[in-house]
Amino acid sequence: MSVPSESQTPQDDARTPPSWSTLHAMKLPKGVVFAVLNHTMALAMCSAAALQWNDPDPGLWIAFYLAAAGACLQTGRWSRDWLAPLALTLFAAAWALHLAPEILHLSSQDLLGSMDQKGGAVEVAREVGGLVLCTGWMSTLVVRRWRAGPGDTADDT
């Protein structure tokens, strides 16, 4: 930080934004980035659950996405916090593999062309996309916990 000149007041210096090198040198507390990502994913899962109300089969999807949000929020709270994400990973992966044959013939134009299309293979493809995203994040939670070691409940979230 520079020494203020006679024409500068300490208040002027406080309003000056930090330089990129200053921001780059700052160290975030351990686990902050993960905690932000994890809570963002929990919010995304809650949003996905809310969007299922107008789905032809909302019950199972709402329960699934709320369970995934709960798994995100319970991370680091107890010693076996990897069980729920593991169960959801296995369930979502199996469900996605079960649905995958229905969407193999679709092109990216079919998937991204119209967001208001309901039913058919396009809806199944979007469901598989949600399952794959959830599988990826739940797997991340499991791997992160296993790397932390047994008995470590303070997961820095």
Name some characteristics of this structure.
157 residues; mainly alpha
Question: Please, could you describe this protein's structure?
Answer:
By secondary structure, this protein is mainly alpha-helical. The chain has one domain. The chain has seven helices and no strands. It has helices spanning 10-15, 20-25, 32-51, 58-73, 83-99, 108-113, 120-148. Helix 3 runs antiparallel to helix 4 (58-73) and helix 5 (83-99) packs antiparallel against helix 7. The protein is globular, with a radius of gyration of 22 Å.
**Cα Rg:** 22 Å
Net shape:
globular
CA-CA gap between termini: 32 Å
Number of helices: 7
Question: How would you summarize the topology of this molecule?
Answer:
Elements: H1 10-15, H2 20-25, H3 32-51, H4 58-73, H5 83-99, H6 108-113, H7 120-148
Helix pairs in contact: 3-4, 5-7
How would you summarize this macromolecular structure in one to three sentences?
The protein has helices at residues 10-15, 20-25, 32-51, 58-73, 83-99, 108-113, 120-148. The chain is mostly helical.
